[in-house]
């Protein structure tokens, strides 16, 4: 097929007679592509971030904080009685006292090392203080070694700085600490906390996230066997499937009335906590998606508007061409091709701008660099948008009757 | 003449209703998106204490480990230790100074039916109130003597006063907090700080606290640590005192220095202080002390969220596309009016007349777009509120300046957009157009 048949030459020469309009469309397409591609990239990154699993039974769990006050408050008996009360409530699968909640944003971290002493390589890890019910309440799986026994669990008064003898760690942390051996073999190894204090790895669990969703080492987590004797403590409760909402008020009421020397506050489901922790990401996704869609529509309508105008202006010429034997198809093709040429300039410029904006985002906001295939994909999308937008006006142009050429306006 | 042009403009706009609507919508969308994001950024980066932000300085001392900086590349920690907080306060080398910490505790109202509740507490020194212009409804802040004598006095927020004392003047009355009796010396009025600059370590847009209490109560009552506690070295020994004396940072320090001279002197004092501590075997890192004024500190702590900035730049590009769109459409529209323009020129209208006439038309579209944009900005801010929840409450208000600038931006950008099409339209040779008629 020769270029003659496609009429590239005449289209190009006609375009050059009305450069500004074409350039405007091309720039619009370029900027739209820049925004769309970068937005989609950011959206996908955020979506992947949100989809990471915390490793716990989020749907059925909730937690609350109890804060004691007054001189008669006894943290030890309170914790013992509370746990007994919660665990015996109908609808509760299991419950624990815990110092921090996964994905909540607040927690406690320490450094661990495989050799004692200063200036050794360390790995940071989040600490969850739990008793022997921890594995069941959090819905974890011990994949090597074993769970804490009741005898391992100690009371931890406020201000104490030493640690229990045993620890359970995640598979990911085991592999970070001992990169040369399989995680199964980490059971029984000694790791050091606070540089010199040994702890023996009693078990390895499959997965539980640290509380800080923005942290790089999100699965660096340890469980220590302790119940805290602080004034403020948290209870984490895993309900029987489907029972969560029903037992929340029951537990709150039961705790509040069982001991008047404290207040129950901050009762919240883990699901809600997740939504809160990722709220900024969810919002960013929604805002960018909306912007992107509206922008594409605006650009599309702009193309429709300009194409309609150029059709109207060329009515007479189109009629003449039709009278001279051009088929309807040839007219449609003319406008589609014209738009294709403009779009090509636009998406080429767009490719440069897209990469440029991404580089800026990488430098200023330390975002990740764009994967290369986003650029051709974006070009394709914008080409399509242009073609779809111009199709309507082109169709209208094709319907101009040849007889029009014979009339004077 | 102007009204005549206005009439012509309306006629012209009505003649192509769809095209005009498209242009107005495009400008409206662009302005709406930009104003929404600009508002959020503007409020995030607002100066919360404009008249003295240059005189308030946040103190940073590099007490970190000799092996690694607190923050890369070589930044001192963003808080100080208890030891430094108390030493600097005792030295009293600034015009005003306050070390601070945050904590929380249970308030037990005296009424039979009132339930105890948890309150946020800020621990500070007496200078805190005059330094940060805290507004008082009743009473005053406590005195320096109260600080040193470790008196059980508090200043409470308006909301706390409502809750515990039903809103009455409670100065002199007793309030039970963390199991102790405190005397109320002052009640604050509404105090909204955006950002809450005096402590941004836990989030710059938190509310001001419910209770303010003398700093040494931390030690006296062994109050819990609020905010972030960071340690490069574990406390030596057990118990609360060991923790206070450790190298853990959990305290903030502000000083008020009235001029450059005072600032230089205070910096000298800090350097001398650190050198003395070095002699005692602490502060292993090279001298790296900082005094940052309010806006500098907001910049260092990156108070304006990255996402907000990204959104603002995206929305500016959005506005650009909308304007390009409008230019294209205007161009098309005015070209379509070529014969009309030719006729007017032929019957005597000058180029200037035509230029002004068409600018009036573009300005009309701009104003309409601006008004639509303002409406969309309101919607956009409501949307942001519902997406981000209560913590952006103070970041989504449109004030008069913002509204006026929205309309102005719309007007200016639409006139700029109309400039080239108008110029082109006016350069039509009358003869060429009249011929074909």
TrEMBL record, chain A:
MacB-like periplasmic core domain span: 24-245
Transmembrane stretches, start-end: 20-44, 287-311, 340-366, 372-391
Record flagged with keyword Nucleus: no
Superkingdom field: Bacteria
Domain (ABC3 transporter permease C-terminal): residue spans on this chain: 292-402
InterPro entries noted in UniProt: ABC3_permease_C, MacB_PCD, Macrolide_Exporter_MacB
Keywords: Cell membrane, Membrane, Transmembrane, Transmembrane helix
Gene Ontology molecular function, alphabetical: transmembrane transporter activity
Membrane topology: Multi-pass membrane protein
Pfam family, one: MacB_PCD
Cellular component, GO, one term: plasma membrane
Main localization of the protein described in the UniProt heading: membrane
UniProt subcellular location: Cell membrane
Protein family (similarity comment): Belongs to the ABC-4 integral membrane protein family.
PANTHER family: ABC TRANSPORTER PERMEASE YTRF, MEMBRANE COMPONENT OF TRANSPORTER-RELATED
Protein name: ABC transporter permease
Native organism: Aliiglaciecola lipolytica E3
Taxonomic path: Bacteria, Pseudomonadati, Pseudomonadota, Gammaproteobacteria, Alteromonadales
UniProtKB/TrEMBL annotation, chain B:
Membrane topology according to the record: Multi-pass membrane protein
Gene Ontology, cellular component aspect: plasma membrane
Subcellular location: Cell membrane
A Pfam family the protein falls into: FtsX
Residue ranges of the TM segments: 21-44, 310-334, 355-380, 400-420
Major localization listed first in the record, in broad terms: membrane
Molecular function per GO: ATP binding; transmembrane transporter activity
Domain MacB-like periplasmic core: 20-266
Keywords attached to this entry: ATP-binding, Cell membrane, Membrane, Nucleotide-binding, Transmembrane, Transmembrane helix
Domain ABC3 transporter permease C-terminal: 314-430
Protein name in the entry: ABC transporter ATP-binding protein
């Amino acid at each position: 097929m020769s270029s003659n048949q496609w009429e590239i030459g005449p289209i190009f020469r006609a375009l050059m007679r009305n450069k500004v309009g074409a350039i405007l469309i091309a720039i619009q397409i370029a900027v739209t592509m820049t925004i769309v591609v970068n937005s989609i990239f950011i959206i996908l990154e955020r979506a992947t971030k949100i989809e990471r699993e915390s490793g716990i039974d989020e749907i059925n769990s909730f937690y609350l904080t109890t804060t004691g006050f007054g001189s008669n408050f006894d943290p030890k008996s309170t914790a013992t009685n509370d746990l007994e009360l919660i665990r015996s409530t109908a609808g509760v699968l299991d419950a624990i006292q815990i110092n921090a909640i996964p994905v909540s944003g607040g927690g406690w971290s320490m450094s661990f090392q495989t050799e004692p002493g200063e200036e050794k390589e360390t790995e940071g890890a989040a600490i969850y203080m739990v008793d022997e019910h921890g594995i069941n309440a959090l819905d974890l799986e011990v994949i090597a070694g074993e769970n804490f026994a009741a005898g391992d669990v100690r009371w931890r008064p406020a201000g104490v700085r030493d640690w229990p003898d045993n620890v359970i760690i995640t598979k990911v942390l085991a592999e970070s600490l001992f990169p040369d051996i399989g995680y199964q073999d980490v059971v029984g190894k000694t790791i050091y906390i606070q540089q010199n204090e040994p702890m023996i790895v009693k078990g390895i669990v499959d997965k539980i996230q640290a509380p800080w969703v923005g942290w790089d080492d999100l699965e660096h987590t340890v469980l220590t066997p302790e119940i805290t004797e602080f004034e403020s403590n948290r209870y984490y409760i895993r309900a029987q499937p489907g029972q969560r909402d029903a037992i929340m008020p029951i537990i709150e009421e039961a705790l509040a009335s069982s001991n008047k020397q404290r207040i129950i506050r901050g009762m919240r489901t883990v699901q809600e906590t997740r939504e809160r922790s990722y709220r900024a990401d969810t919002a960013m996704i929604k805002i960018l998606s909306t912007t992107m869609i509206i922008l594409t529509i605006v650009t599309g309508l702009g193309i429709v508007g300009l194409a309609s105008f150029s059709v109207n202006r060329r009515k007479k010429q189109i009629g003449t061409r039709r009278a001279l034997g051009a088929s309807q198809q040839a007219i449609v093709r003319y406008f589609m091709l014209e738009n294709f040429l403009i779009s090509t300039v636009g998406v080429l410029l767009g490719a440069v701008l897209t990469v440029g904006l991404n580089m800026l985002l990488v430098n200023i906001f330390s975002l990740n660099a764009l994967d290369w295939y986003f650029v051709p994909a974006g070009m394709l999308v914008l080409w399509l948008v242009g073609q779809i937008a111009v199709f309507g006006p082109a169709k209208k142009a094709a319907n101009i009757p040849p007889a029009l050429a014979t009339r004077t306006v | 003449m102007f009204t005549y042009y206005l009439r012509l403009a309306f006629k012209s706009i009505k003649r192509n209703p769809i095209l005009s609507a498209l242009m107005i919508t495009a400008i409206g969308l662009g302005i709406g998106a930009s104003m929404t994001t600009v508002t959020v950024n503007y409020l995030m980066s607002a100066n919360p204490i404009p008249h003295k932000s240059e005189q308030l300085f946040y103190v940073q001392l590099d007490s970190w480990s000799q092996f690694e900086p607190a923050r890369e590349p070589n930044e001192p920690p963003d808080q100080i230790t208890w030891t430094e907080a108390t030493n600097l306060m005792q030295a009293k080398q600034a015009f005003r100074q306050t070390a601070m910490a945050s904590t929380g505790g249970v308030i037990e109202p005296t009424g039979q039916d009132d339930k105890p509740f948890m309150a946020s507490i800020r621990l500070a020194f007496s200078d805190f109130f005059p330094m940060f212009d805290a507004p008082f409804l009743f009473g005053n802040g406590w005195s320096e003597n109260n600080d040193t004598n470790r008196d059980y006095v508090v200043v409470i927020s308006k909301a706390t006063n409502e809750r515990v004392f039903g809103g009455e003047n409670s100065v002199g009355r007793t309030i039970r907090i963390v199991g102790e009796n405190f005397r109320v010396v002052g009640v604050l009025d509404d105090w909204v700080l955006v950002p809450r600059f005096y402590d941004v370590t836990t989030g710059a847009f938190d509310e001001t606290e419910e209770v303010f209490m003398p700093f040494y109560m931390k030690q006296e009552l062994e109050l819990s640590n609020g905010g972030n506690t960071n340690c490069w070295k574990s406390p030596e020994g057990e118990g609360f005192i060991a923790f206070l004396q450790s190298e853990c940072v959990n305290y903030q320090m502000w000083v008020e220095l009235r001029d450059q001279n005072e600032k230089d002197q205070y910096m000298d004092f800090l350097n001398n202080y650190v050198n003395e501590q070095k002699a005692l075997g602490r502060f292993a890192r090279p001298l790296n002390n900082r005094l940052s004024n309010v806006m500098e500190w907001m910049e260092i702590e990156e108070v304006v969220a990255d996402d907000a900035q990204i959104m603002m730049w995206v929305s500016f590009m959005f506005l650009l596309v909308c304007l390009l769109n409008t230019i294209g459409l205007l161009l098309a529209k005015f070209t379509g009016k070529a014969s009309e323009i030719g006729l007017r020129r032929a019957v005597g209208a000058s180029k200037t007349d035509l230029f002004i006439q068409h600018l009036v038309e573009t300005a009309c579209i701009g104003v309409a777009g601006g008004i639509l944009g303002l409406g969309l900005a309101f919607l956009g801010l409501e949307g942001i509120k519902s997406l981000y929840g209560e913590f952006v409450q103070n970041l989504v208000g449109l004030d008069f300046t913002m509204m006026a600038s929205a309309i102005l931006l719309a007007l200016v950008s639409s006139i700029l957009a109309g400039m080239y099409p108008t110029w082109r339209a006016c350069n039509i040779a009358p003869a060429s157009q009249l011929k074909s008629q």
